[in-house]
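Submission sheet (multi-component)
Chains listed below:
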Amino acid sequence: MSENWPLFEVFIRSRAGLEHKHVGSVHAADERMAIEHARDVYTRRQEGVSIWVVRSSDIVASDPGEAEALFEPARDKVYRHPTFYTIPDEVKNL
Amino acid sequence: MYTQALDVHGKEAAPDAADGGPAQRFQARVDAEEKIEPKDWMPEAYRQTLIRQISQHAHSEIVGMLPEGNWITRAPSLRRKAVLIAKVQDEGGHGMYLYSAAETLGIDRAQMFEQLLSGAAKYSSIFNYPTLTWADVGAIGWLVDGAAIMNQIPICRCSYGPYARAMVRICKEESFHQRQGFEIMLTLAEGSPEQRAMAQDALNRWWWPSIMMFGPSDADSKHTAQSMRWKIKRFSNDELRQKFIDITVPQAHHLGLTIPDPQLRWNPATEHYDIGPIDWAEFHAVLKGHGPCNRERLEARRSAYEAGRWVREAAAAHAQKQQRRRALPAAAAG
Amino acid sequence: MSAATDSRTDAQRELRTAHCRYVLRLGDTALVLAQRLGEWVGHAPQLEEDLALANLALDLVGQARLLLTYAGELEGRGRDEDTLAFLRDAPEYTNLTLAEQPNGDFASTIVRQWLIDTWQLEIYQGLCASTDTRLAAIAAKALKETRYHQRFSSGWLVRLGDGTAESQARTQRALDELWRFTAELFAPDEVDERMHAAGIAPALAALAPAWSARVDADLADATLRRPPPQPYPWHGKRGVHTEHLGHMLAEMQHLPRTYRGARW
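Outcome: structure written.
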């Protein structure tokens, strides 16, 4: 008989934060329990106002072996950054 | 990513003729203080060393819940009871952060637990000593957590990302542990003659085991050089031990208690405290399983695990039933 | 002093005594239950449950501290939270009998927890409207904690009741054994009636239907049978306890009683 509880990754959004950050993982038998465990383990010091739990097996991650192909090409496309453009000082609101 | 599904076990990158291979690239990253993350290539020995170290660290935390948990029902005030429960809860939480970090390396919680219960995995020897009086709770917070902090702060900068991040979290929580321990000792030292004697007795029993927590001199340790090169270990055992002693002796003076070492003295030339000889025979005996409480500690964890089996099975069974029930309407419609 | 004034001060004094006793009962129930949960730490079926049970204990100790401190002030004899907790003997304790029952196995602990959580939910909700603003504030804070406790305990009741054949058998057995202690939960006595008349507490018996409905809903989800009603007049809230409380207090109170007058 199985007694193993699957692993869930935990993401917490802090009081002042805008996005959920990955903080670790918990084992739980079901989603409701996963939320409670995440709350008990990762928010004891008022670290969060929102919890996401995701089964670890559902996470799809990029392969570090492909890091060059995935991330290097963005390096030379500086025109995506506002500082690339020169706007005269007198022009406001740009 | 901390997911077990991505198993990089045994996967070796193709050697690059230009710069001498993945092992060299790996070392270059470590030397440059880059963090190694779960899916990155790493030498198998690096992975195994980390699994061993992190899981043993986790085991220490959860076995460590027992000596202090022993006093929750007997804490002498409601405030002390609340603080002790919070501290022991933190220790359980630390165990969880560490098991979490270890699981990113390809081992799962059940496997690690089996290793602990079978005796294959070690845990910090200090938790094989009994807590005989309330003062022991104070001594553990002050000395044992103090030593742990000394050991743990450098690991916040270790090369393996998940371990380093777990340590940052743990260190933030650990300082309250040491402060509450010292506060207990202070209250006892300033209390009645019996309380004062209780505090001194606890110091007498916990001083040397705390010193031994840092482990033998690195000259006698097999793993140190490689661990240092991989930035898993950042300071030698002796360095950390000396730092701990230099910080703690003045604290004992403040308490008005005597450290049980007749050879302890300040060395003005080195500007460190010199201590008497450490009885490493005791350390090794305790590590081998012959300490005062080794059997009891493991037995407690073992029986909780065994007794809890039907509970874990019930939760898993219920979850399965729920999944099947949710699938039913879809099956009926299809 | 006239007879009218005498009877008025008598009435005030009686009300204050009842008030103190009422608050003390709530505090004692929280404390005794916290003490039981404290025994579990380090021995739970899963590490995550060690943390969960410790969390419950911590919340309940917090409630006990607030309530005992307040009761001591109402009493006016200079007893603080620790004097009340550590220097009263069993007959002076006024917790629900249910709270002092031993942990038993995890099913037993969960059933006990769930029964008290659902009870506290009704009580604290009712107390939020108390004319005693201090008690209302304590209840409002405790209510948030209790909602989480009840979520936890009812979740486990369902997992155990509707889990495996073994877990269902254990949970049904625990329910059958603990059910008689529910007789006390909504049986009002003079203290409860005085508190209600003064607008301090809700009418106790009136809370029973809501509690019963919630209990039935959870039992249905858990595929468990509600035991038949059983009379049980030995109410802990009147200081009439089972043999368990004495042993628990002996352990809990050992240090302050051995080192009289010591500060910890």
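Remark: Chain B touches chain C through 48 residues (CB under 8 Å).
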